[in-house]
């Protein structure tokens, strides 16, 4: 549960005196590291962070249901896990990762909990 919240709002028990954007970036990096099983070097992790952030920004701007508060945690988790999966398969293009994650998200059944992979 903590991780799910961390990906959504950046709060995972860290120092709340950090700016929210720093907490969110650190939470996202921790999430990627956890689900990537140490498969990526720091440069690739940075690419994955950029792809997740870009995809999420586009979801929010689109006013899609997964961008609302009720579904945001599940939407962010679906995007992040999909991007990690594609990166494990060798993809490194952040724009492709972001675009394909959005397509994948759009094909998911709307739910407050992400599907089990």
**Regions with pLDDT < 50 over 5+ consecutive residues?**
1-12
C-alpha Rg, in Å? 13 Å
- Could you describe the largest sheet, including whether it forms a barrel? none
**Helical segment count:** 5
Terminal-residue CA separation: 17 Å
Please identify the structural class as seen in this structure.
mainly alpha
Average pLDDT, all residues: 81
Give me the count of strands. Answer: 0
Please write the string of helix (H) and strand (E) elements. HHHHH
Give a written overview of the molecule.
This protein is mainly α and 117 residues long. It has one domain. The protein contains five helices and no strands. The longest helix is centred in the middle third of the chain and has 21 residues. The relative contact order is 0.14.
